[in-house]
Amino acid sequence: MSSVSAFRRAAGAALVLSLSTTLIVQAAPSNKDLIKSRQDKLRDMGGALKAIDDELKKRTIDWDNVILPNADTLQSRSGFLLGWFPKGSGPESGVKTYALPALWQKGDDFTKLGKAMMAETAKLNQVAAAKDGAALKAQAFIVGKACKACHDNYRSPDYEKENDD
Amino acid sequence: MSVSEEIGERTAGGARILRIWDMPTRAMHWLLALSIAVCWWTGLHNQLEYHLYSGYAALWIVLMRLYWGVVGSSTARFVNFVRGPRAVIDYARTLHRRSTPPVHGHNALGAISVLLMLGLVLAVIGLGLFAVDVDGLYSGPMSSYVSFRAGRHLSHLHYKWFNALLAVIVLHLLAVVFYYVHKRHNLVFPMISGRRTGAADADGDLRVAPFWRFALGAVIVSGLVWMVTTGFYF
User: Fold this and answer.
1) Any chain A CB within 8 A of the CB of B154?
2) Given an 8 Å threshold on Cβ–Cβ distance, is B136 in contact with A53?
3) Which of A161, B105, B106, B184 lies at a CB distance of 3.0 to 4.6 Å from B75, suitable for a disulfide?
4) Which residues of B touch A148 (CB under 8 A)?
5) Number of neighbours of residue B167 by Cβ within 10 angstroms
6) How far apart are CA B53 and CA B61, in angstroms?
């Protein structure tokens, strides 16, 4: 066996190993990535609700470019929300998170609140499609309350004290 | 038109009763203290609907106090009590002495406290106006001019700067205690009654600004605060 072919074999093995490692990492994201990802997604949801609220203050509402896409973001994201909090992704993971252990201890209640969020964002989309400003304002408020219901019980109050950038 | 009032009431012991703070200044002082307390409690307990109302009240009071500091009664006017660094240092050098005559109005050091407190209250309210409620229910009225992320950052600064304000308030309260214990000057009672007792030969008067001037300011400031509450969306 020549030294060149030995090198090729070694390089090939290294490539396979590195690719498989990458795949494994992608298949099982670390808690750090998971928590960062859910924080980003929840922030996007907050941004989407804010965009709707802000638009509703204007005299002319841009339904097609602002209201509908943001209402859709809220509904589609809330469909995945309950999956963002697997067991082990709380403060015990060692990663900085404001999610309280109560979220996992009272899993049934959290699931109920998550499902309520899905229902309310679905309604938000229906109202947005009807292009009724007053009804949308009322429903956006209800969606905000659905956010708050979880935040009040399952998010640390320290959240307000620290910079969540 | 301001009315100059010579105060010549005498107590049985020969000491004179001097008018020091007019009614609007006293009312604004205590109402500001109350509104800040309400802001604090509602902020801590996430009662943001009432936090907004108490914040608007504090904004109204601070703006009125600034206005009164320009056109109000003599002891409320900035020009009559804000002094330069030399006067502040000179006054600070007399702090340790027990028998200094009371200053009729804010002293040079207290003036800094007044400016610092009004400035901080205004800064905290200013940040709050742009702050974003994470649930989108009770964001500041001007929050639509900033992004969600920027607004959350401003909420954080709103919280942080309030702590700086609390520190100045604590200093203010400690100073009041210091004056009472060390110099035997009761600063609280005059802020309630508007009067203080001076020596028989003590001088000090209060030129009381007419009420219409306060009413005019109240109308202008109310209009301004109302505009702010709408976020300038008319």
Assistant:
1) no
2) yes
3) B105
4) 135, 137
5) 11
6) 12
pLDDT of A21 reads: 54
Task: Count contacts between A and B (CB, < 8 Å).
Answer: 64
Asked if the C-beta of B136 comes within 8 angstroms of chain A's C-beta atoms, the answer is yes
Residue A17 covered by a domain: no
pLDDT per residue over B216-233, tens digit each? 999 999 999 999 999 998
Instruction: Please give the backbone phi and psi of residue B44, each rounded to the nearest 5 degrees, phi first.
Output: -65, -35
The pLDDT of residue A100? 95
Q: What is the pLDDT of residues A66-98, one digit of tens each?
A: 999 999 999 999 999 999 999 999 999 999 999
- At residue B175, the pLDDT reads 96
Hey, are the CB atoms on A160 and B155 less than 8 Å from each other? yes
Instruction: Average the pLDDT over A13-20 and give the result.
Output: 62
What domain count does chain A have? 1
Residue ranges in B6-147 assigned as alpha helix (H): 23-44, 48-71, 78-81, 85-93, 108-130
Evaluate whether residue A8 is within a structural domain.
no
Q: Which pLDDT does position B27 carry in this prediction?
A: 98
Average pLDDT score over residue span A18-40:
72
Instruction: Tokens for B8, please give them.
Output: 């010549």
Cross-chain CB nearest to A57 (options B135, B136, B231): B231
Q: Which domain holds residue A38?
A: 30-160
- A-chain CB neighbours of B141 within 8 Å are none
The residue-averaged pLDDT of B80-93 equals 94
CATH number, domain with residue A91: 1.20.120.10
DSSP secondary-structure letter at B135? T
Report CA B41 to chain centroid distance, whole Å.
Answer: 19
| Minimum-distance CB partner of A162 among B133, B148, B156 | B156
CB A85 within 8 A of CB A110: yes
Which residue, among B19, B52, B61, B54, has the nearest Cα to B37 in the 3D structure?
B54
For residue A118 the two structure tokens come to 């899905």
**Could you give the CA distance from residue B161 to residue B15 in angstroms, rounded to a whole number?**
44
Residue A15 lies in a domain: no
Structural domains in chain B, CATH included, are 3-229 (1.20.950.20)
A54 part of a folded domain = yes
